[in-house]
Every structure is written in structure tokens, then in C-alpha cells.
């Protein structure tokens, strides 16, 4: 067997045959092989304190969601007039965008509605869509202002996504502008994006400036429903997910960190993972000089994705919509897509935290959250044009 060596340790196993894009047959073959080698796996005890089953509105399946009225809130003409007035009010203050807040972006009737919807994120089904902002009526910078101002009522604290204080990201295909080796994350391609959570945020919101000409469906899935499936059928994978994993830092110092992907805190289950940290993606392949993942971990990654697909809901994400999800209880993904000269998919993203409603974080995640939210309004910057975030810039 190949031994991978670095200055710290020798590893007597190799990275499993697993890539960013999951292969269902490969997953099924790996599962069959592991169960044949150890038939006792489905009878593994759950980790101490972990529930046999979660019962909550956060446990849902896509088939349970019969109509968009269950999760879409339609803005009225009064709400849109308030947003217009708030834009004018903010410009009159002559303050930087880092000061965008309910105090500087007043929404007298819409604001209380948004605060109530924030409770839906934390105590309801964990997601909603706001429909729809007339994006063509605003400049690029005013669309950023509207998005940030409206979102400040859902969660006032914005998180850092990029160096130099960047709290706003653009999700857009940039593969025509950059070489393949310069892109290390699927957000900047037309590729399918597999189920994952974003790293270091309570709430992830997306604002659709434009949708794709074809494909690009936004998909979400209840990680609590996935937990219940695994707890019933494969508790050994719960054990695997709740044990430390080697998280690739892609050449930074330290070269990797260790933490579980699954936690149970205050009666809540939290899964935090993104597949590319364990498989690599395009210009950021999995580092060769760090410990490989195990076969059990490879199976667990595939199980999370394919169960995510099984229970997922495809959202009819329209131009001008803002999608909000609880990043601690919901996985998100998107289908591959095609752009056209007339329709080029372009989303804006914020990472947010509502200090009043926020869940208690497990200790291993607190450094990630500190890194995200330890930025004052004075240091926040908002990219008006798309750029590749520094952490997903390829090495080539």
C-alpha cells in the first residue's frame, strides 16, 4: 500500500477514489463493500447524547412542500414604495455601506414582517423567499444597498467573505474570464454545485439579479431529515460524521484543521460541511501532503449528497427574489446551467447572524464564526462587480 509522507507523519492509506461530483454507482459500490466487510455497521450505537430521531418543523421533505405560498412572501406595492424611500433616505445620510442597518434603512411596515420571517428561519422550516425586488429599476450599487438594507431586518450582523473587508459575494460564471486552474470553487462556473453548507455563517441569503437561460435550479434539503435517515439506517455514519475530519486549508498555515462535521448542542443537530474541502475542485485539488480521508468518510460524504437529493426541494428562483436559509439546518445546491447573451445567471450573497435568535454554537465551530463575524461596520466593503473570492482562487 502506498505511504504518503510529510514532515509531520506517514499515512498508510491513500485518498479514496472520490471526486467533487458524486457518482451514485460508486457510492453504492462503496456502501456494499463496507457492509460486506462489516455487517455490524448498521447496528452501531449513536454517539452519546445524539437523538434517535429529530421532531421539528425543520424536519421536512421536498414532497411535503405542496405550494410556493408555504415559503414565498410577496412584496406589496406599499413595501416596494418603502424600499424606494429607504434608498433615498440612506443616500441622504452620506454614510458608507457598512452603516446599512434598520436605523439607516427604515422600512416601517415591511421591517416587522421581515423580523417575523427571521423567526421562521430559526424556529420554523428554516427558509423563505422574498419576492420580488424590481432589480432593473436600480443601479448596480443601489441593488446592493436594497439587498443589504432589506436583509438587515432578517439579521443585522454581516459576515466577512473575502479579504479587505468584503462582506458581499457575487455568484456568477467567470470561467470565460479566468483560466480553469484559476478557479477553485464551483460558484464561479456553470457546473452543478453539490449539497453543502457555507462555512462560518448562521444564515445564507442569495439575491437573484438574473437567472440562467437554462438550468441553474436552486435546491435545498433539510439536514435534520437526512440525520433521521442516517440515525435509523446507518448510525455508523453518524459516528463518522461526529468524529474529527481533516479539513484542507489548501496551502494556508496551518495546512489543515481538524473538526467534526456533525454536532448536537442544546437539542439541535448542526451539520457543517462542504465537499470540496475533502475532494478538491478544479484549481484547488485536495492537498497531497495532508492526511487522506477514509473510506467511511468518503461514503458519508456521498450519503449526505444523495440523501440531500432524495429529500430536496427545487425552488423556483426568479429574477429579483431573495432566498434566505438557515445554514445550520439546511443544505443547499444548484443544478448546472447555461447562460445566454440575454440571460446570465448572477446572484449576490450575504453571510449573516441574528444575535437575538442565534443558536448556540459547538466549540469547534466558534473559531470559524469569529473569523466570519469579527469585522466592524467601518471595515466592511461591498464589491459592486464580480470577483473570485481569495479563498477559492486556484493555484494555477
Automatic annotation (TrEMBL):
Domain TauD/TfdA-like: 100-351
Domain of life of the native organism: Eukaryota
A Pfam family this chain is assigned to: TauD
Name of the featured protein: TauD/TfdA-like domain-containing protein
Protein source organism: Hypholoma sublateritium (strain FD-334 SS-4)
Keywords: Oxidoreductase
Any GO molecular function: oxidoreductase activity
Amino acid at each position: 500500500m502506498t505511504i504518503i509522507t510529510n514532515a509531520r507523519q506517514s499515512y498508510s492509506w491513500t485518498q479514496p477514489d472520490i471526486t467533487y461530483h458524486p457518482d451514485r454507482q460508486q457510492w453504492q459500490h462503496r456502501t456494499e463493500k463496507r457492509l460486506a466487510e462489516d455487517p455490524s455497521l448498521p447496528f452501531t450505537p449513536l454517539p452519546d447524547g445524539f437523538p434517535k430521531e429529530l421532531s421539528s418543523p425543520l424536519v421536512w421533505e421536498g414532497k411535503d412542500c405542496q405550494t410556493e405560498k408555504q415559503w414565498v412572501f410577496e412584496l406589496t406595492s406599499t413595501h416596494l414604495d418603502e424600499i424606494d424611500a429607504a434608498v433615498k433616505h440612506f443616500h441622504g445620510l452620506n454614510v458608507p455601506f457598512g452603516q446599512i442597518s434598520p436605523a439607516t434603512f427604515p422600512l416601517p411596515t415591511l421591517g416587522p414582517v421581515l423580523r417575523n420571517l427571521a423567526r421562521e428561519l430559526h424556529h420554523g422550516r428554516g427558509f423563505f423567499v422574498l419576492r420580488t425586488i424590481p432589480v432593473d429599476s436600480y443601479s448596480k450599487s443601489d441593488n446592493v444597498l436594497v439587498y443589504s438594507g432589506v436583509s438587515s431586518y432578517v439579521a443585522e450582523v454581516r459576515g466577512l467573505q473575502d479579504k479587505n473587508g468584503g462582506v458581499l459575494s457575487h455568484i456568477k460564471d467567470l470561467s470565460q474570464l479566468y483560466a480553469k486552474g484559476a478557479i477553485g470553487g464551483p460558484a464561479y462556473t456553470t457546473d452543478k454545485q453539490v449539497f453543502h453548507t457555507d462555512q462560518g455563517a448562521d444564515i445564507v441569503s442569495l439575491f437573484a439579479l438574473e437567472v440562467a437561460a437554462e438550468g441553474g435550479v436552486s435546491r435545498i434539503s433539510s439536514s435534520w431529515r437526512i440525520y433521521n435517515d442516517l440515525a435509523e439506517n446507518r448510525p455508523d455514519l453518524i459516528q463518522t460524521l461526529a468524529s474529527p475530519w481533516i479539513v484542507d486549508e489548501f496551502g494556508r498555515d496551518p495546512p489543515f484543521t481538524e473538526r467534526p462535521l456533525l454536532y448536537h448542542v442544546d437539542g439541535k443537530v448542526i451539520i457543517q460541511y462542504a465537499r470540496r474541502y475533502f475532494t478538491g475542485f478544479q484549481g484547488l485539488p485536495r492537498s497531497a501532503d495532508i492526511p487522506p480521508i477514509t473510506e467511511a468518510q468518503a461514503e458519508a460524504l456521498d450519503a449526505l449528497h444523495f440523501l440531500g437529493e432524495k429529500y430536496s426541494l427545487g425552488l423556483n428562483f426568479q429574477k429579483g427574489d431573495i432566498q434566505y436559509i438557515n445554514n445550520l439546518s439546511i443544505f443547499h445546491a444548484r443544478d448546472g446551467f447555461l447562460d445566454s447573451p440575454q440571460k446570465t445567471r448572477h446572484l449576490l450573497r450575504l453571510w449573516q447572524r441574528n444575535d437575538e435568535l442565534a443558536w448556540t454554537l459547538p466549540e469547534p465551530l466558534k473559531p470559524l464564526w469569529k473569523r466570519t463575524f469579527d469585522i466592524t461596520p467601518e471595515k466592511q466593503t461591498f464589491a459592486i462587480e464580480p470577483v473570485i473570492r481569495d479563498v477559492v482562487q486556484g493555484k494555477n
